[in-house]
Amino acid sequence: MTRPLIPRAPLAYVGLAATLMMSGCVVGPNYQGPPAAAPVEAQSPAFHRAGDLANGAPVGHWWTALNDAQLDRLMEAALAGSPDLAEARARIVQARAGLKRSRADRLPTTGTAAAYLRSKGETSLLAGGQAAAAGSAQTIEIYSANFDATWEIDLFGGKARAVEGARAQAEASEAALDGAKVSLEAEVAQAYVTLRQLQQRLALSRRDADIESRMLDLTRQRRADGAASDLDVEQLNSQLQSTEAGLTPLSAQIAEQLDRLAILTGREPGALDAELSTIVAVPTPPSAVSVGDPAALLRRRPDIRQAERKLVQANASIGQHTADLFPKVTLLGTVGYTAPSLTHLFDSSSSSYTVAPFLQWTPFDFGRVRAQIAQARGAYDEALADYRKTVLGALQDAETALVRYGRQRDSVLGQLRVQASADHTAALQDLRQKGGTATTLEVLDTERGRVQAEEGVLDARAQLTEDYIALQKSLGLGWDGG
Description:
By secondary structure, the protein is α+β, with helices and mostly antiparallel strands. Helices cover 59% and strands 13% of the residues.
């Protein structure tokens, strides 16, 4: 039914709808916060295996403590150009758009249409009750404009739960980006340390090969003089061939790490070859390292925050499906204008409106909605288990990293003692040579021992730095710089 437009009538319906919406309830369970997945350690003032590491606040940009300017530049380039981070940022854009759409779903859906009709045809004319022979053309013009709106009143909070879930999904995407930063930083640092270790290892191996080559030449001379056997020569030759054969794999591994760093920083393979060709020492961790406490770890780690937001999303899904058990009320409204001329289109005499409430309910759906609710509850239980697993896994990562870092510091000290002993032996051997009681071959053999001791220290220090990197990653550092 259409009636002349009365401006106050639609406002009355809008007020009624707003009252119904405000008086509506939100069904489903309210989120009560994350569960206590590790209540004992969360209350502990320090990690169980922290040892003598400081309990103060750790540094966000932890790689700066390694005091390597080249690593700092690589990290900056990776954070700016990594495809992985670009992918994670794109997911945030999608999630935020989904949240915006969920919010818009709570508002009316509006539409408009306009039409123009022109008709012209021949008609017969009657004059004085008599038919006229002549015909005349008649033109009809009609202008029309219509505005309509549809609004589902969120009586039981289904759409509010959808917004809640979409917001949690967006926040989970943000946490995923933070987690990608943490992983990227650790991977860049590990690749850089491995590169520097391999470059130094190649240089030491070449030194070793040079020493062995000189020893082989001397042994061949001694064999010509009858002071060495063919077996002595073959043993040294075999050792030299083995050392030289190891140079090629080392070169290949160096190229692999260079390409790995290039890709991590968003560049093409080979782009960093010239920049990183100079051999420098492996960066070492600072003498004092702060690790904080377990409670700070649980608040900081991005994977824990992501798992907790997924728990919120799963909880909201239960309420969203529970709302489907109840009736849905939709308001339909249309305002139309029709006139024979454009100048009179929006006159009050040309208007009409229609307002109709629409009730939709399916009380007998043979359990479909309740099955969806049960499915949502199962998804929540799965998210809950994943959250607890994530928390326990994070604590395990931290405790394991603490143990490895502490033990590796002892290993470095042990290797330094080995190197000191090799240096002392070389010094004594040098004195013996000067005194005429040691041969050049013995001195070279002692020098080879020094090279092997340097390799041991190099590997131990590189492993210590890698364990430091793993520790920072396990603590969830690096995504916020603080």
